[in-house]
Amino acid sequence: MSRYVLDHHLEGEKKRLALMSQLLDPMHRRQIESLGISRGRFDFVTARAVLHHVADANAATGNLVASLRPGGAILLIEPDFLPVSVAEPIEIRTFWSGWLAWSRERGIDYHIGRTLAPRLAAYGLKEIKGTAETAIYNGGSQWADYWRETITELRGDLVQSGKLDDALVDAFLAQCADPNWWTQTIAFTAVHASAPGS
User: Fold this and answer.
1) Chain-centroid distance, C-alpha 10
2) C-alpha distance from residue 129 to each of 47, 74, 117, 121, 124 (Å)
């Protein structure tokens, strides 16, 4: 796949995307309405890896639940960083501790996965069930590449925050390149439920 030429970090990119939304959203809404889809009632609603970035996850969850038709199903998939709390070696565990402190300051809830079931129960949803999956990976794998890319992109902000330093970032990146290093990534919690009704 070719690289996206309008990188989101380019100066003015946020303004360009906001303008695009202002220009195209009305047409998009008209097209959806022409399909006969009523406002906010769906058989199935899903969100993946979104709620942990949302400032008011309760309001966002409420909006998702409100869009369900009676008897409709909802599926939420969100992270829980619990596995990284026991990562080895100790430098990696320390790295993750700093990462989590940094993310809390940025309003990111990397433990939201464990709260999905009670959140859905609070809205009166039924048949709530879920699982959590944690990938095991080694350095040089796709997961390691994902984290290497992410950490490289965020490195400046991570170090500037004071939650991590260059030595910890370098230690993490070195492990991500070492095929002899095995670890677990975050747990992704998937919870599904049904709205009452027929």
Assistant:
1) 23
2) 16, 11, 7, 11, 14
Q: What is the distance, to the nearest Å, from the Cα of residue 175 to the centroid of all Cα atoms in its chain? A: 23
DSSP 105: H
**Please, how many CA atoms are within 13 Å of residue 145, restricted to the half-sphere of its CB?**
3
How many other CB atoms are there within 10 angstroms of residue 159's CB atom?
17
Q: What are 70-110's pLDDT values in tens digits? A: 999 999 999 999 999 999 999 999 999 999 999 999 999 99
* Model pTM above 0.85: no
Residues across the chain: 198
CA distances from 75 to 67, 78, 131, 156, 161 (A): 13, 10, 11, 35, 34
Which residues does 59 contact at the CB level (< 8 Å), separation at least 6? none
